[in-house]
Design goal:
Order of helices and strands: HEEEEEEEEEEH
Number of domains: 2
Helix content: 10-25%
Distance between the termini: 24 Å
Structural class: alpha+beta
């Protein structure tokens, strides 16, 4: 019994911090040439500074990404294998700006150079050009009238799951102990 109480106290001390892991989805849309573009990306805020600029050159933040465009001059799409989100800027926990880019041949690490990217899309509040350039330095199209919205997809309170697991484990240990005591009582009788 003393061991179980000790384990319970240790679990309370270890897991009493309130940590949340949140996943967000950012939807975006706008105009290109005589057509439109749209898409989304998702990211997990674990490990990010939610009150500053977070850069991630050489990798990307997103877990899923889709970027589609259609106009007379160019039609196509990118996903997380050929594009990525290379910065996320937060202010008081809210996403304020972001930037993404991609290359049809895949991502070999992000460098903010228009010559290496087939497209670069920046949130409207961030300075810089958003463009789509067809492969092999073909015509360049401005990505304009950009709109976006970030929505929290899930927030998982980790301590609640741990408490439920701990209570279940303690219950199973109690049942096991009761069965042992009943078996011992039957043998001695």
């Amino acid at each position: 019994m003393k061991k179980m109480i000790g384990l319970a106290v240790a679990a309370v001390m270890l897991f009493s911090g309130a940590a949340n892991a949140a996943v967000y989805r950012v939807d975006f849309a706008g105009l290109i040439d005589d057509g439109t573009f749209d898409g989304y990306f998702t990211f997990d805020d674990t490990g990010l500074d939610l009150n500053a600029m977070n850069y991630n050159f050489g990798a990307s933040f997103e877990t899923n990404l889709e970027f589609n465009y259609a106009s007379t001059g160019a039609t196509g799409s990118f996903d997380e294998t050929t594009a990525g989100v290379y910065f996320l800027e937060f202010d008081n926990g809210s996403l304020t700006n972001w930037g993404m880019g991609g290359n049809a041949t895949g991502i070999n690490g992000f460098v903010q150079s228009t010559g290496l990217l087939d497209f670069r899309l920046l949130s409207p509040g961030y300075s810089g050009n958003s463009f789509l350039q067809t492969v092999n330095a073909g015509p360049q199209f401005a990505l304009r009238e950009r709109e976006w919205e970030a929505v929290e997809v899930s927030a998982v309170p980790l301590p609640a799951a741990i408490w439920m697991f701990g209570a279940g484990a303690l219950g199973l240990l109690g049942l096991r102990r009761r069965k042992k005591q009943e078996a011992a009582a039957l043998q001695s009788a």
